[in-house]
């Protein structure tokens, strides 16, 4: 195959001579075609336990369609991994404004620490967290009302059966209350899961004689007891009291109503506690040498997650995961490949520095280097272009002509400063050039408007050529991304304490182009 694809280039000039073959080669070496990814459905199935999926908040009402898609898919996977590993603490690296962190905490009742290097992001996460609490309470109230209606409908369908079993219900509630009185902390946790209500098992009898006596009625009693407890758990305090009074018309509190009040009080305390600690945004710069215990004082067995961790942060997340025994699993989706540091990109190599690429020993031994242009290409979105989202040809053309101007007029071939998103703020090419020169701290007074337009006219006939060149870069993008992702996967495969690791396609690449997650779980003994 390599021999066939190599004929896409001229052997002497090394120029591209067969575009069709080039495109076929790029597709052949894409991640989707290599067969190295583990399907998300297979991962979820392997991690699946006895718990049902949570229902509740809808993230699309609080964030963009793209972010909502990412958060919903990734949070379900993270929760499944946490349940599989038996952990409740999650560390979200590069948490930004806390979209994933807050959702994991509210929806799945996980204790989440969101760490971001930007204090403005952390402050924004605090403010967003405060606003989300109000919406979350509304969702909880709505869920309670829905469950109340459903449970009341079921109860109304069999009023005779309910009265026959009334005594049994009272006994079950009292038994539950007595067994829970000395376990208030456990009750608080169990009564307020993010999904809505908890099914509580009916206590089993202690002797075989008692078991024989209830054999004929146990299944009916259990079912009815669970339904009543579900109602009690989801109704607010005043509704529970009114419901009880109208039902039994007692002049004073009966034992069942005391139990109901106790359960409601515990539930209210737990809700207030959980709402006051949705998650904890922290400001800190994470490197491969970061000691998490210095940042998180109550660090326990946990997992690390990262949703579009930028540049070297994705690589450092994996390094921290392999080095720290407390971290039992990792789920990392990287981005911004152009910001990766490369060990073999520059001649001046620092042996003490930790590089973003390569990570695995195999590529290190070969001295592999991508280069900035290739890493920039890896950030392009082939799937979006394939469905008709055009490349920003005009802005790319502006930037290309600007490059010629600053080289020929100012003699600058490399700068630490960046033009940024100047195109969207510019009214014309002249305006674009002048804004860019100011950002680059170059004197634009030596450049008249006529000279700027002369450059534009000189190169405008090559705009189509530029577009074709960028389309080739888009086609090649998945191949470069493969190299970076497989490097990270191979790094994990080289570690001795990893039980399983893999690449998983999490997102729709049209909605979220950086859609692949690197996932790993440690051996249970580690």
From TrEMBL:
SUPFAM superfamilies (UniProt xref): S-adenosyl-L-methionine-dependent methyltransferases (SSF53335)
Domain of life: Eukaryota
Domain Methyltransferase: residue ranges: 66-343
PANTHER family: CGI-41 METHYLTRANSFERASE, METHYLTRANSFERASE-LIKE PROTEIN 25-RELATED
Record-given protein name: MET25 protein
Organism of origin: Eulacestoma nigropectus
Gene, per the UniProt record: Mettl25
